[in-house]
Amino acid sequence: MTPRFRAVKGTRDLFPPESDRWIEAERIARETFGSWGYGEVRTPVLEDTALFARSVGETTDIVHKEMYTFPDRKGRSLTMRPENTAGVVRALIENGLASGPTPLRLYYVGPQFRYERPQAGRYREFSQIGVELFGVEGPSGEAEVIEMLFAFLESLGFRDLSVSLNSVGTAETRASFGEALRAHVLPRAKAFGDDDRRKLADNPLRLFDSKDPAVRETLAEAPRTLDFLDDRSRLHHGEVQRLLTEAGIPHHDDPSLVRGLDYYTRTVFEVSSGDLGAQDAILGGGRYDGLVASLGGPSLPAVGFAIGEDRLLQVAPLTLPRRAFVIVLPQGTDDVADATRIAREVRVALPGGRVEVDLTARGLKKGMARASSLYAEADTRGFDGRAMLALFVGERERAAGAVTVKKLATGDQETIPVAELVRRLAAERSTR
Ligand code: HAM
User: Fold this and answer.
1) Domain 18-169+229-315 coded CATH 3.30.930.10
2) How far is the CA of 283 from the centre of ligand 1 (A)?
3) Cβ atoms within 10 Å of 340's Cβ, excluding its own
4) What is the pLDDT of residues 239-257, one digit of tens each?
5) How does pLDDT run across 28-48, given as a tens digit for each residue?
6) CB 375 within 8 A of CB 385
7) What spacing in Å lies between the alpha carbon of 423 and ligand 1's midpoint?
8) Ligand 1 pocket by Cβ (under 6 Å)
9) Which of 181, 247, 294, 365 is an S-S bond match for 204, by CB 3.0 to 4.6 Å?
10) Angle, nearest 10°, between helix axes 418-431 and 336-349?
């Protein structure tokens, strides 16, 4: 059947067991960040369009060509957030938290929207897991968020990742670096497309976001931000490196890293995974000491990062924790009520396990076919294969107040009273 409706281009649907991996990654994120003192912030998807022009930057690719922007019924220009940092800062200022006690530690999990060309790991609706730390001016801010980030990535099973680091200095650094960059690029810009020529004129730093090989080649020999740093920014950068080394976090300098958003000051960083292709970062972040003030709040230093959840889950070696699984198979429709009652008792004995009833009551043969296919997928679905059970409930069992228990791993089966099954399951659970 040809579907009448399709998901909008660049969006997609997630089903179990894939959605189970998302839930598990988000659970680990909440647990990790929570244990470092971070609390969850939830801000709206819709924001005033001007918020992003002001923070992410008018000349960035995101604001220039990737935003979902539309007038509402009263003609106000709204945008579906392309990222969450601007919204968090807006919320802090609006709710008076930007002038409150610091440090302020927040994280978020949620959908973001960018009109990009869909490809592997890149969507128009995608999800980010992000962290923002406010009120820490020193390099211990970067060290904390990056160390916590690594604790999270290690819990997902990642090993051997390294942080790419750079410093874009202060606004003055960026202005003088921008001029030097323009002077370097200008004589070589004839081969550039319109978009990159616009960047060269408006904000040369944005050329680093270009995918055009001619631009990338020109930039390979361009001046480096690190050569334009003021003394304090240079010192800060050195301290970030030292603290990361001390914390055992692998890192390296990447002088071409400037990140595609205008609000960064000093430290910028990314983590990439080879599995996604050379240019695709799983996550990016940095310091943005001027953003709160530029959006009308007090002077409040900040640092954070956001992980692209879609990309993360594509490459994460994360395995689901094993849980018990029991399928209750009524022989016919007359056995459904009994099967439901037995499932209820078994659930009490198996908290956290999955106990489902074949409500279609299509008979044991079809029920076992389903049980076997679930057993075959035990690993991807996060079931403890050795402990998977099918319970048969039919006339014979009903008469005896019993249930036939079949171990899916071995095929062994026996008929025992329901109370005995419940007792055994509870005992096994306590020894596990
Ligand atoms: P960003 O680099 O624009 O930074 O996005 C962070 C991550 O979101 C990227 O590394 C990527 O994994 C993911 N991402 C971006 N666009 C897409 C897409 N179209 N499809 C799938 N994943 C995508 C920010 O958004 C900043 N707000 C990060 C930050 C927080 N800086 C300081 N605090």
Assistant:
1) yes
2) 6
3) 14
4) 999 999 999 999 999 998 9
5) 999 999 999 999 999 999 999
6) yes
7) 50
8) 83-85, 114, 116, 121-123, 126, 128, 130, 132, 260-261, 281-286, 288, 304-306, 308, 310-311
9) 181
10) 30
